[in-house]
Specification:
The protein is mainly beta and 498 residues long. Helices cover 5% and strands 47% of the residues. The radius of gyration is 22 Å and the shape is globular.
């Protein structure tokens, strides 16, 4: 093999390891060649956390964790720092600043925590490399004691990308929904925000060409993008240039608030795991971005098997139009997960749930977007000694997962437990807690065998400063994509081409 070929292979391997983007199998490639590709830990990760709240009463905790990855080396560094420049609703720019990191993780397997208070807390931009990069996870958890959007607001800080779908957003009068756009790079990003309602695309020139300056964050109030309030909309965020992280902060006058993360990519079958057993109201919002309609079978994966909600057996989603249906107290005292499957020739969809707990003036809401399966490994940080509930769903065949509770941020010994989820069911459990726990800890879920398993974690704070309100938030558990497929030196690079 000549020197040029060797250089090309080395360059491709390095690029795959740094970017963290690769397929588990090479599409269209020879089976033996695809198997020859090794899976190696990524060497660099980026995470961005949106500005947590506009309330002076907000108290925010950040918890960072990187699981131990075989083959990732013995050294690495990571830091999560304030964005250097903060903007307001896309107009004007603030002064540059270089603050100290909020978090500086030291080694895999050891979670660390940080704090922020009040309305001036900025968005955070972070990167990790070496042994701290594979599976790096940061949870942002905010308690707001009063006002619009009061409640427990939780979000997994996310990697930058160029395309996002948010079914479940709203421009209704009782809602104040902001899309937060954060740019981690050294050049400006240009972003388009398009809204889709029950009758299709909502015309607006205001959402086009939003500039997000380098290392900065822009919050955009969705109701300023349209003259006509709509209860259920789907938000599409695309970056014309550059890349951003995106998340919707949804605040309701009566139902509290939480973060609405992006849905998984459009798919024929979608899974929305972890509806609380005491949910008093569940709303499903779905959208199909293609040219064809979607016809979906609606089923609840309960603890005993799949059931069809009475009166909501199916959902028809017209192309380019947002469909919404109120499922009421669909779980009826038993935790469950919603599974949408295509009937006939159905187009791919994106979807999300808004779930409500409590009654009357003591209601609180959270969101569950469609998500990817747990896959090789998934992690969620900021678990407490009390208040964490783990939901695991196997929509097809039974699946077995291993759940590891890390040490705490201030001490504790990791513990591991294995769960087998029966096919078509949802298992809701109190997860293992580290022995001698002090502080918060992380949960890592790994697929061991069997069919695909989907998961989510509900965190509730029973001793919060809002008496009677069930303060809670839900985070899904998608595969962390902490490894990439890298060809061996004797492998044809064409197997990695798409």
């Amino acid at each position: 093999m000549n020197r040029t070929t060797l250089s090309l292979i080395a360059a491709a391997a390095a690029l795959a390891a740094v970017t963290g983007f690769a397929a588990a199998t090479a599409p269209g490639g020879d089976g033996d060649s695809a198997k020859a590709a090794a899976r190696l830990p990524v060497e660099r990760s980026s995470l961005l956390c949106p500005a947590p709240s506009t309330s002076d009463l907000a108290e925010t905790a950040y918890t960072s964790y990187t699981p131990v990855s075989q083959g990732s080396g013995s050294s690495g560094k990571a830091a999560l720092s304030p964005a250097t420049r903060e903007l307001t609703d896309g107009a004007g720019s603030g002064k540059g600043k270089a603050d100290k990191p909020v978090l500086s993780p030291l080694k895999p397997g050891s979670p660390v925590a940080g704090e922020a208070s009040g309305a001036e807390s900025p968005a955070l931009v972070g990167s990790a490399d070496g042994s701290l990069a594979p599976g790096w996870t940061v949870q942002q958890t905010t308690e707001v004691a009063a006002g619009t959007g009061r409640g427990l607001l939780g979000v997994n800080c996310s990697a930058p990308d160029t395309d996002f779908w948010f079914p479940g957003a709203s421009t209704a009068k009782e809602r104040s929904d902001y899309i937060h756009l954060t740019n981690p790079d050294d050049s400006a990003a240009v972003v388009d925000v398009q809204l889709y309602g029950a009758k299709g695309a909502i015309k607006s020139d205001v959402g086009e060409g939003i500039q997000v300056q380098p290392h900065s964050s822009v919050p955009v109030l969705l109701s300023t993008l349209t003259d006509k309030p709509q209860t259920n909309i789907t938000l599409h965020v695309t970056a014309r240039s550059g890349r951003v992280a995106a998340a919707v902060l949804a605040a309701d006058d009566k139902l509290g608030g939480d973060w609405l993360p992006a849905s998984a990519d459009p798919a024929g079958t979608v899974v929305l795991p972890g509806i609380p057993k005491d949910a008093t109201s569940v709303r499903l919002v779905a959208f199909t971005p293609g040219d064809n309609d979607a016809d979906l079978k609606v089923q609840l994966a309960s603890p005993t098997g799949r059931i069809t909600p009475a009166g909501h057996e199916s959902l028809h989603v017209k192309s380019g139009m947002t469909a919404a249906v109120d499922l009421g107290d669909v779980t009826r005292g038993e935790a469950g997960s919603l599974v949408l499957t295509p009937t006939g020739d159905s187009a791919p969809v994106v979807a999300a749930l808004r779930v409500v707990r409590g009654k009357g003036d003591d209601q609180e809401s959270a969101f569950i977007p469609a998500t990817r399966p747990v896959g090789a490994r998934a992690t969620v940080a900021d678990n407490r000694a009390k208040g964490s509930t783990l939901s695991l769903t196997a929509p097809g065949a039974a699946g077995t997962v291993k759940v590891t509770a890390s040490a705490g941020t201030e001490g504790g010994t990791p513990v591991t437990k294995t769960y087998t989820v029966k096919g078509g069911t949802t298992m809701s459990v109190r997860p293992p807690v580290p022995a001698g726990l002090k502080g918060a800890y992380a949960l890592t879920v790994e697929q061991v065998s069997g069919g695909e398993v989907y998961g989510s974690r509900m965190l509730d704070v029973p001793d919060a400063d809002v008496p009677g309100v069930p303060m809670f938030t839900v985070q899904t558990l998608p595969d962390d994509r902490g490894t990439v497929s890298v060809p061996h030196a004797d492998q044809d690079l064409s197997v990695l081409q798409k």
